[in-house]
């Protein structure tokens, strides 16, 4: 509504169900300091009635008003009038007091009044039996809350009203949940009630509703457990028994009272045939002192408004940490809510941290927020993304995706439907996010920076020291986060002047310390805890913080500390008890990021002699290497790598079976790769290179392939810098393996060439034998069959000279493939069978699958299709058990080839699809192109010629980009298809 006598002005509106704010139209008005906003709130919540000066003094300061309270009150009132500008007449002075009311006595536009109106209408609808309408009105009412009511305001009146508003909101939530239960939505409300009872443990009505929801969801034991927990809590905290209605409900559940049974899922409102649509309102509260960014607000607002048309609007905000991406995005999202009446979703994707949120988990949370029952949410990422898009079809929803890691994390979370929009913040510029409207957010202008500083500190303190204030924001680099921290420190210290703060920030050596007020407080807390530790605890705290991994196992911690497991567990658990370490899971521990930084600073400061830090990390590397060597021997019996390793001096874990060994490898993957990367010094580099060779299964798994290659690349640079040719040869060998699996054969061959030369130069039997084997594999894939046979024959002789049975079998199987490619099918089968026989002789179960794979390929070309299928299916089973996703995908591809040779195009299409799905998450483009070619042939065989051509065209593009000889074969397939 228009307020005041003027008719051309924008609407004047106020909010108190969150930060106290005022707007004229869409333009925010400066509500001033906390005390000034407290006065505004006290007047707004009186419904236009006059408050005397004494009442207002009591409201703002209680029993201890300042000496000049009345003068301060008049000053606040004067500033409010100034802020209201042309609407200043709504602040009325009368009878020695003040009131806020429009000149024509029309109601103010206040969120609190709207909430009362909607709540009353909801009560009427409920009384009339229109439960659907009542639920919708209650959702609308609850959506008006924007975080904590009267946020940031002090004083007895604000405290009392805040408590009242909290209680009112909670009662509205209870009423809405009661209605949910009445219409059969018991499963959907369990998670909400669980959170509410955790937040309000003594509120018995919430416990009662949770018991009923659980019972109706078929979870009777949990419902009764809620009662038992409640009775115990009430007795412990208040010394009372549960209320009568709660006790009665327990008895009714015990006797399975049929009247408690769930009603059918209905919506008996005026549109009873329509499904109730949940409208999530997940946006965080916007800051009350949002400043500047006018052009960006307008640009983003305009972009989001286009979502009402026929396209999905995607906007991505990029900038350095602390530049205000989230603050701007939340502000814009709140302003754009009217364009998205079906709700707003929000997720912090943790992209700047070590463990970004998984899209599959975020999709699960979004689907629940949109009203999807848990039982209807699928497990897989693609299935969840598809359901998410289907759920949003025909709706207008805004998704705010905050703190994203990269475009890959974002893509599954995009709504995809017209009328919807996504607003993204990230430190990475998302140039690979198709169709996104990109905005690079820079620091504030000097004027905006000074305005923000002034709003936090207060105009009086800044006006008299404007030059010093400019020096402060300049020292902050006009970065919003730094300005906010500096201003908050000053606001909390009434005796400081702006000049004092400016002088503190002028010292560049201490500037970051001065701008980390929150961290300094946390550091003081850490210092207090650290100072209370016994010497052996303090040493453990310092040394454990040195490791780079995401967490650490108890066994690895024992290695760092050079202690047995029992003593190490007691010591580490004592750090957990001191809140200096977290127990991530049984037997695993982690530091909070800031605590880890503090621990490292303590190690640099207190660890004597300093060489103990290097010794601790050396023990950790030895532990991982020794354990990985045991795992490697179980996986590859007969392989000589372990015999050619650098010696280790600290023992590792022992395994009697390959299953727990593999479990250890994949559970420790992130930690041991981090340890290898951290071990780039001259004393540890060779052992780190050996560790990467011992754990090369990680390159085959898909999940860690990229990280595995990146760590190798880092170690290669270190080896070159140190001039360590032995280490360089081994790292080249590991990189050859990783890049071959990725299908980047030219790069892999270059690595293999260096590994071969350096291995011979350093008399390293490992590198000098493995490198020709790898070069033979690569040459075969590239169609250089003579080179391939020469390299593999050389490798075979080297492996036999080294008595390396496992690798001898591998070379025989690789040579089998060369014979196949040159038309020598019978000898190819003989070579593969020799390899399989050696694998069986030495008990190499895991590598036996590779031999079976090679034999299956040979049988296929020999038209022994049943034998081929048997070999490949047995190999597939082993690959699955060993988590070798790359080889699993390749085996599906070979099974598709068998099916095609046997004239089974439908089964071939199924196997090719499985190959493609697996190889999309592991392996490289070359292998996916092979699967696409097979899929095209299968689809063509079942009459889907259009899809077949698409598959071949995509495969052809890959082959041509890689310079593969396979492009000619695919081109022939396309030519024949075009002529048909």
Characterization of the model:
The chain is 62% helix and 6% strand. It is α/β, with parallel strands linked by helices and 980 residues long. Strand 5 and strand 6 form a beta hairpin. The longest helix has 27 residues, at 156-182. It starts with 11 loop residues before the first strand and ends with a helix. Residues 1-8, 265-275 and 518-525 have low confidence and may be disordered.
Please give a handful of descriptors for the protein shown:
alpha/beta; 5-stranded parallel sheet; 980 residues
Structural class: alpha/beta
Strand order of the largest sheet: 9-10-11-8-12
User: What share of residues are in beta strands?
Assistant: 5-15%
Largest sheet: 5 strands, parallel
Q: Rounded to an integer, what's the Rg over CA atoms? A: 35 Å
Which spans of ≥5 residues are poorly predicted at pLDDT below 50?
Answer: 1-8, 265-275, 518-525
Find the count of extended strands (DSSP E, 2+ residues).
15
Give the helix level as a range of percent.
55-70%
Separation of termini? 70 Å
Shape designation: globular
What average pLDDT do the residues reach? 86
The number of helical runs is: 45
